[in-house]
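Q: Okay, next protein. This is Methyltransferase-like protein 5 from Myripristis murdjan. I've checked the sequence twice, so it should be correct. Can you predict the 3D structure?
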Amino acid sequence: MKLKELESCLQQVDVFEEPKLLLEQYPTSPHIAACMLYTIHNTFDDLEGKLVADLGCGCGVLSIGAAMLDAGLCVGFDIDGDALQIFSRNTEEFEIANIDLVQCDLCSVDADVYAQKFDTVIMNPPFGTKHNQGIDMKFLRAALTMANKSVYSLHKTSTRQHIQKKANEWGVKMEVIAELRYDLPASYKFHKKKSVDIEVDFLQFSKT
Ligand SMILES: C[S@@+](CC[C@H](N)C(=O)[O-])C[C@H]1O[C@@H](n2cnc3c(N)ncnc32)[C@H](O)[C@@H]1O
């Protein structure tokens, strides 16, 4: 599948109907999702036939794209039942069968239950800017426990040094694959502008 084709399929994925501010529910744009997944697939061969987890899966754009790139099985985890319902509807509309969903709080889940059960973890986690400071690192810790090979994640560029320090402490290799401008739509009342651009790193973590 070509990149443009993937992006145009992902434009059909339904997103949050009433996004929940405290859960940082903003979807990954079809363009960013397609570029991420295409790179994970074509450059690193970490999707085809792999067991993939999508942490904070929301309405499923990353999982659905991974399934389209022939992931073996994709398991989406999210705390929010409403988002998972939309995700489930999306999978029916796309007639995708190799996806499972788990509703749980990734901050309190015992990630050891899933220790090294997945080849690849993909995620666009909450950034920790809504009275939930540190949630991005909790997601990353869980992701690294659950993956046996690679984790691909989006993080605010301003946190890069901190994340690199943690990756060193945890003994995993971190690579900045791309620096993105993330267009955060003004879906919340307190945003005065139509959209806000923030600098985001697309990171790869490899376990040796
Ligand atoms: C930035 S959105 C990303 C959504 C989706 N992955 C995407 O790429 O469009 C973050 C997601 O994390 C979920 N989330 C927030 N806090 C969570 C928690 N403690 N446990 C599990 N999921 C959580 C939200 O419901 C939301 O779907």
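A: Here is a summary of the prediction. The chain has a mean pLDDT of 93. Residues 160 and 193 are 26 Å apart (CA to CA).
Q: Noted. On to the next one.
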